[in-house]
Amino acid sequence: MSKRNIELYLDTSTSKFILGVVEDKKLLKQLIEKEEKDMSKVSIINIKNSLDELNLTPKDIICIITNVGPGSFTGTRLGNTICKTMAYSLDIPIKKITSLNAMAISTNIDTIKVPIILDKNDYIYCAIYDKDNNIILKESYIDLDSLLKKIKEINKKSTFIIQKEELEKLKEKNIEKIEIVEYNPNILEIINYSKNINITKAHDIEPYYLKKVSITKKEKQ
């Protein structure tokens, strides 16, 4: 039997396990589960079971796309390690995509896209894209007020894209004039977008953590 052209997408950067299996622009399998158990054990089992269900083997995979965050430190590192190990052992290409980029790509709307991930003390991971996913504001770690000022400067209809589990927390902020939508991963769009992403060496894949830039009193003066 000839080798299949399987592309695999894995995202463990949140409490959800997200897996996509695509062949020739056709979605064969999409698995999105909220994991309360040991993510490391569940991840391997889910990948194996998904391939078995489709009568596939790891050798049918021609490329892996891994989500590098920002997100859960432990979860992101876990998913990256699994993907790196598979890519290295199978000698196949691996590509990386960020959580914020995946959120924007997955959301088909005719407004400015603002994917965000909430953090502590009103700080957020965020980026701003136009409706065609061109970057307006690069991925940043800033406070919510600073983001709202930036959106005001752009002066165009904008939409927040956020994980379901964070949706209510954001609504509690009583943000006016900005629509809020739930992030629903679109595996086909992510895989299609990845065609334009450069291949990364497996050992160079690392979790992507945006850091807040601290300003000293001397720098403020």
Q: Can you tell me about this structure?
A:
The chain is an alpha/beta fold and 221 residues long. The chain has two domains: 6-99 and 185-204, Nucleotidyltransferase, domain 5, CATH 3.30.420.40; 108-182, 2-Layer Sandwich (Nucleotidyltransferase, domain 5). It contains seven helices and ten strands. α1 (39-53) crosses α2 (73-90). The longest helix has 18 residues, at 73-90.
In short:
The chain starts with 5 loop residues before the first strand and ends with a helix. It has helices at residues 39-53, 73-90, 99-106, 144-154, 167-171, 187-194, 217-220, and strands at residues 6-11, 16-23, 26-34, 61-67, 94-97, 112-118, 123-129, 135-143, 158-162, 179-182.
Strands, helices and their partners?
Blueprint: E1 6-11, E2 16-23, E3 26-34, H1 39-53, E4 61-67, H2 73-90, E5 94-97, H3 99-106, E6 112-118, E7 123-129, E8 135-143, H4 144-154, E9 158-162, H5 167-171, E10 179-182, H6 187-194, H7 217-220
Parallel strand pairs: 1-4, 4-5, 6-9, 9-10
Antiparallel strand pairs: 1-2, 2-3, 6-7, 7-8
Helix pairs in contact: 1-2
Q: pLDDT average, as an integer?
A: 91
CATH class of the largest domain: Alpha Beta
Class from secondary-structure proportions? alpha/beta
- Per DSSP E runs of 2 or more residues, the count of β-strands stands at 10
Number of domains: 2
| Spatial order of strands in the largest sheet | 3-2-1-4-5
Strand content: 25-35%
In N-to-C order, the SSE pattern is EEEHEHEHEEEHEHEHH
pLDDT < 50 stretches: 213-221
* CATH structural architecture of the largest domain: 2-Layer Sandwich
Shape: elongated
The CATH topology of the largest domain corresponds to: Nucleotidyltransferase, domain 5
> Helical element count?
7
CATH superfamily of the largest domain: ATPase, nucleotide binding domain
Instruction: Give the distance, in angstroms, between the N- and C-terminal Cα atoms.
Output: 70 Å
Q: What does the largest sheet look like?
A: 5 strands, mixed
Helicity level, as a percent range? 25-40%
Radius of gyration: 18 Å
